[in-house]
């Protein structure tokens, strides 16, 4: 082994080889050096582990090509588009909601040129970035005023810091939720500088529980929409209108965090439990926080809508600058919000709503089209099955949406190996596994993505 280790070439000597010198000129000295060190380190590790290592011809064109390929791999984008065949419409790990083409175009336009981000074109003086979407949000929700920050957790944090810092926040024990990434609502309340007063029990909270907790230090009654879990059976929670009346009587703020948040009624599409922002404000809630990148179908953003005097406090708070939304997100959000107004129909133009509202027959047709293409490949076992898709993104985890999926098996690969191969394809394909079959759910796949799916499975099955 010691003799073999002595055969490992010096990096500097390799860099002086003619074919490798060409690689250095084509890329850079540092990239070539790093790649060579990695190759030599792998050979050394194999020898030290007692394995037989096959030395390449370091002077050959073939080795230079291998070196180039290794450098190209490091230059390839890490952040890239994937095909979502999981059946989860708003997949947090896959970037949540797809955005509409109008939102993408708006981002491109604003990103490729100077813009009036903080310039009032009418007066020529400094303007506010909040003004670009505030009017739209108010028109769609009935709010007096609105402001946007970079995500919904930020919206809750800012709202509590500005209204309840150093005072009490009253919340039901049954609504003290934990959101993605182990972030818990009580922790957010604590970070805001407010003190949490828990009321009621896990399964039952009444208006009287809130009323008994209100004192001179109370600033906010906080409701949270439990979109990511459900308590069934012996349960009770107060009506928003009763809480709004209680808050008004005691001159405290009623705030509600929706987590997701929708602007239209989704009951016709199988989601009857997702409250509409306008209805919540109409019920008397003073401030509502919701997300831009979930069921609304836009970019990541935290939207705050409600009373003008409270929103003015938020805009003036020092934390606002740290949480403010960027120009690309604003452009995408404005374009998305416009799709909720005539002449547009959001169910036909906002991708997440398109997937949600797609007729089951359309999903089945897509599944049978893909299955028909795949059946032509030798060794591919394919079938179409009824399936269940889900909204995802922390929204309605138990609310299944009828769907169709294509199941796949390859004799030479386990389901896990096939899923891995699809995930490592040039356009990664993300699937789910059921009963040792790879499942491609067609509710989250576009027609335009079928050729890429077909090409990937053909290459894997013949490779």
UniProtKB/TrEMBL annotation:
Its main location: cytoplasm. This is L-seryl-tRNA(Sec) selenium transferase. Gene3D superfamilies: 3.90.1150.180, Type I PLP-dependent aspartate aminotransferase-like (Major domain). Pathway: Aminoacyl-tRNA biosynthesis; selenocysteinyl-tRNA(Sec) biosynthesis; selenocysteinyl-tRNA(Sec) from L-seryl-tRNA(Sec) (bacterial route): step 1/1. It comes from Sulfitobacter pacificus. The lineage of its organism: Bacteria, Pseudomonadati, Pseudomonadota, Alphaproteobacteria, Rhodobacterales. The modification N6-(pyridoxal phosphate)lysine is found at residue 294. Its EC number is 2.9.1.1. Belongs to the SelA family. GO terms for molecular function: transferase activity. It is an enzyme of class 2 (transferase). Converts seryl-tRNA(Sec) to selenocysteinyl-tRNA(Sec) required for selenoprotein biosynthesis. The keyword Repeat does not apply. The keyword Chloroplast does not apply.
